[in-house]
Amino acid sequence: MERLDLPPDVVIRRLPLYARSLRYLQDEGIQFISSHGLGTRINVTAAQIRKDLSYFGEFGKQGIGYNVNKLLAHIEHILGLSKEWLMVLAGVGHLGQAIVRYEGFGSRGVRLVGIFDNDPAKVGQVIEDLPILPDEDLARVIHELGVKIAVVAVPASHAQSIVDTMVAAGIRAILNYAPVVLRVPDGICVRYIDPITALHSMTYYLAQEEDKRRSQTP
Amino acid sequence: MERLDLPPDVVIRRLPLYARSLRYLQDEGIQFISSHGLGTRINVTAAQIRKDLSYFGEFGKQGIGYNVNKLLAHIEHILGLSKEWLMVLAGVGHLGQAIVRYEGFGSRGVRLVGIFDNDPAKVGQVIEDLPILPDEDLARVIHELGVKIAVVAVPASHAQSIVDTMVAAGIRAILNYAPVVLRVPDGICVRYIDPITALHSMTYYLAQEEDKRRSQTP
DNA sequence: CGGACTTTGTGATACAATTCACAACATCTA
DNA sequence: TAGATGTTGTGAATTGTATCACAAAGTCCG
Ligand SMILES: NC(=O)c1ccc[n+]([C@@H]2O[C@H](COP(=O)([O-])OP(=O)(O)OC[C@H]3O[C@@H](n4cnc5c(N)ncnc54)[C@H](O)[C@@H]3O)[C@@H](O)[C@H]2O)c1
Ligand SMILES: NC(=O)c1ccc[n+]([C@@H]2O[C@H](COP(=O)([O-])OP(=O)(O)OC[C@H]3O[C@@H](n4cnc5c(N)ncnc54)[C@H](O)[C@@H]3O)[C@@H](O)[C@H]2O)c1
Fold first, then answer.
1. pTM of structure
2. In three state form, how does the secondary structure of A114-127 look?
């Protein structure tokens, strides 16, 4: 196949979904899956899955579909999950502690190696074997360990400044829980986790339904 | 303006971002903002903001921009945030408790009115004035109070079945934290909060950088 | 072996979203 | 009043994404 143009970001964002579904298939002991079979599990059309994968190579067999183990290995490799990326967390409050304890993060491809807070009362406490360090150590740890990923769980008002520090120290990817849009240099990847925004986009549809209902029963 | 076609979902998803930014502007005491000014704050082009808003009406003034208070009120009204929507939560574990305590949820447009768990040891405990109820009461509460929004924070293996119960009882919008794609009837709105998937899409770009770096310094 | 099924990978096509570009209007200054 | 500046709202153009549809290749089975 000719792989001229690089895969668009929408495709990259779907790959982890494919990977997760393949892991469930693995757990179920299923060895082969067609694009159609995979698609029905995750509400994506078969054609889209095939086209997405075609950006990276040819992984299927006509008449059969995809070997679950092999396709998963391929996708994890494409996603860089065959290595282990180091990660730091800033802000060990309510949310931060929940993140540290969520085993999901540690499981695949990433490892939390440092947690930071600027509250002197918190510094020194240990959570899941990780001591809370002061902000002063943040840049040094990032730099010395070559950490590339950071999670931001500080109050919105402090998010931008801590991100500036992180980026200056070598962070290249940021998972941001604070409800602010971050300003970062080109090439730094940022993803937002924002349940409130998600909720507020759903209430739109609820309001629409309500309106329609009201206009039908006057 | 002619408002022939309904606004696409991408637009609806951006509105809460505009609203949040306008709230910050309000806090700063700023009374007028141009599409350009708003755009630079949230990394969106001015033209996109104007086009998005044009789906709903004309809110700006040439030469001036938008009145912050008025535009915010308009957007919140469009999003259905002038009413208060009731919400239930299923799964009061680590994550669920963090959600109950996160004041962000209560603040605007939505109110948590019931929390549910199937662990008998948890039922009866009270968190932030809300008693944990057993799953048996879920359908009744949804139905009797007319609850339309649900948050899912149960283990992945239990998510689909509890969602089926919720939808049968009248839930129309679901915020899902469990790492599974849900199957719901047409018309039910689902949003996924999925930090692991977000992380795994970022490692792709890290791996790309690494590859490039390696090929440059052989 | 041959014909009925399946399924992939991918150009071509259709659809969707974003950006461009500009007329129309508003304000300010002198 | 007039000219300079700034901003909106929106058709048209552009860019981006998803779907279609089918040749090619594999399986299955009598
Ligand atoms: N996206 C989500 O799902 C979600 C959920 C809950 C909270 N939040 C957001 O996450 C952030 C944290 O929420 P929380 O409930 O944990 O608040 P919290 O007050 O419990 O915790 C914040 C922590 O950050 C620390 N901190 C403050 N400034 C800091 C700095 N400059 N450097 C390092 N640490 C600093 C504080 O000491 C505290 O421990 C807030 O922005 C909140 O809006 C997001
Ligand atoms: N998206 C995220 O940000 C995020 C973060 C952490 C966890 N998670 C996911 O959220 C879910 C919960 O995670 P957690 O860390 O809180 O786990 P947990 O084990 O601490 O809590 C799960 C809770 O759900 C309850 N439960 C189980 N089955 C139930 C049912 N059928 N009805 C009602 N309650 C039920 C359990 O009793 C328990 O209290 C998991 O699916 C996890 O993968 C998501």
1. 0.96
2. EEECCCCCCCCCEE
